[in-house]
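ARCHIVE CARD
CATEGORY: sequence design from structure
SOURCE FIELD: tokenized fold
FIELD CONTENT:
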């Protein structure tokens, strides 16, 4: 290990002599680890300019990533030399990532258990970085959020990509970046999404909301594809597959928003297009008053249709991934989509109830996902699509 690495890394107290402590203390440690202490608040942020035609803004990123991935591998990395970590150190770093993923994201964790070991470790490391980023604005220290905190987090991101991780969890990501052709762009964009979340509490229309969803979740899709891999026999362009991955992120985030409307409103947040609420005679006050009426139900039907549209787009790309990665992706796609069914089953009451998919339903999804994952790649992709309402 180089001295730079050994100095920078701070092991956690919940792990001693490489041993995992009790389940309870591990859970506490997992929680403590994702919370990154912010410092002070101040900042200004402008919502990025939206393009005139749909959302090609995000496609530009995809094109850039695909182009860079198809060129010389070394040109994609800021990390040019193999980071020198002790194998036991890395093992512990990934183990911590695994624990955090298992604790926070049962559905995704289940999906990762179906992957090859190297891929699952990479996804855990990416998950942890995403979760810590999200915690900056959503976690218990969110009140201390500021542009300085996000700037510092972005500096740390560059250090991760330059082989100088700040702590053990960052080190797992540095190792992952060395092993898989990850690009820094979607990671930076996710931080940009968090900047947006601290500034923008309302979304005038779907274009604005889509952009937010891209930043905080579409980016996860773009981060995941280089780890999942594309099937060598896939007849479609890498660009289309990246778009599908992005759409899975959008579908997930829209679903997450619909599930959490009631909860988010308690924090004064409404992640719904204001113009579409108005079309159904609704406004923020209806959400805060928690009354589910026919207008709300009709509005919700439209939102659910849109989320399903993005899941359908994602299906096409899921079947183009490397065969060994299809099952976990199909599983998480089908499992997350079931939340929409659960909202319907609650008669669209997402204001006072949280839609929930039970364990049995989850388990029944796995064989279905497996059979979908076995089906041959089909060349039905049509590249970038946009659903305008
Ligand atoms: C197996 C698998 C799907 C792995 C991906 C796991 C991964 C790296 C997840 C990161 C999730 C994360 C912490 C993102 C930060 C921002 C955020 C919280 C977004 C929401 C996730 C849901 O989390 P949760 O329900 O815990 O939300 P709360 O904060 O508690 O409200 C999101 C809804 C976004 C999730 C988006 C994805 C997982 C993208 C999935 C896309 C792929 C894996 C690409 C697959 C490829 C093709 C071609 C289809
Ligand atoms: Mn969140």
């Amino acid at each position: 290990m180089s001295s730079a690495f050994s100095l920078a890394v701070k092991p956690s107290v919940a792990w001693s002599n490489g041993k995992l402590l009790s389940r309870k203390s591990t859970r506490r440690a997992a929680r403590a680890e994702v919370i990154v202490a912010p410092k002070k608040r101040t900042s200004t942020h402008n919502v990025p300019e939206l393009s005139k035609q749909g959302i090609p803004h995000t496609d530009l990123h995809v094109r850039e990533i695909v182009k860079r991935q198809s060129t010389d591998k070394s040109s994609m990395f800021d990390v040019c030399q193999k980071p020198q970590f002790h194998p036991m150190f890395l093992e512990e770093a990934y183990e911590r990532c695994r624990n955090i993923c298992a604790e926070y994201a049962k559905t995704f964790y289940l999906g990762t258990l179906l992957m090859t070991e190297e891929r699952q470790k990479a996804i855990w490391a990416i998950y942890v970085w995403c979760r810590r980023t999200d915690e900056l604005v959503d976690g218990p220290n969110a009140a201390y959020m500021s542009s300085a905190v996000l700037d510092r987090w972005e500096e740390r991101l560059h250090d991760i990509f330059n082989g100088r991780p700040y702590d053990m969890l960052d080190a797992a990501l540095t190792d992952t970046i060395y092993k898989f052709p990850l690009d820094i762009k979607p990671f930076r964009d996710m931080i940009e999404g968090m900047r947006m979340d601290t500034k923008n509490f309302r979304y005038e229309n779907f274009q604005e909301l889509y952009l937010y969803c891209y930043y905080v979740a579409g980016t996860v899709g773009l981060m995941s594809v280089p780890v999942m891999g594309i099937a060598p026999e896939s007849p479609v362009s890498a660009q289309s597959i990246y778009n599908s991955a992005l759409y899975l992120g959008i579908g997930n985030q829209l679903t997450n928003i619909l599930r959490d409307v009631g909860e988010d409103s308690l924090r004064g947040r409404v992640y719904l297009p204001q113009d579409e609420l108005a079309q159904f005679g609704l406004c923020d006050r209806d959400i805060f008053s928690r009354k589910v009426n026919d207008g709300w139900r009709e509005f919700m039907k439209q939102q659910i249709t849109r989320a399903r549209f993005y899941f359908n787009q994602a299906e096409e790309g899921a079947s183009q991934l490397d065969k060994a990665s299809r099952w976990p992706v199909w599983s998480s796609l089908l499992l997350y989509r079931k939340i929409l069914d659960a909202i319907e089953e609650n008669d669209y009451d997402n204001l006072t109830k949280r839609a929930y998919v039970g364990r049995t339903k989850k388990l029944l999804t796995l064989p279905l996902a497996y059979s979908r994952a076995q089906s041959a790649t089909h060349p039905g992709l049509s590249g970038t699509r946009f659903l305008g309402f």
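CARD ANNOTATION: The mean pLDDT is 81. The radius of gyration is 21 Å.
SHELF: design records, drawer C
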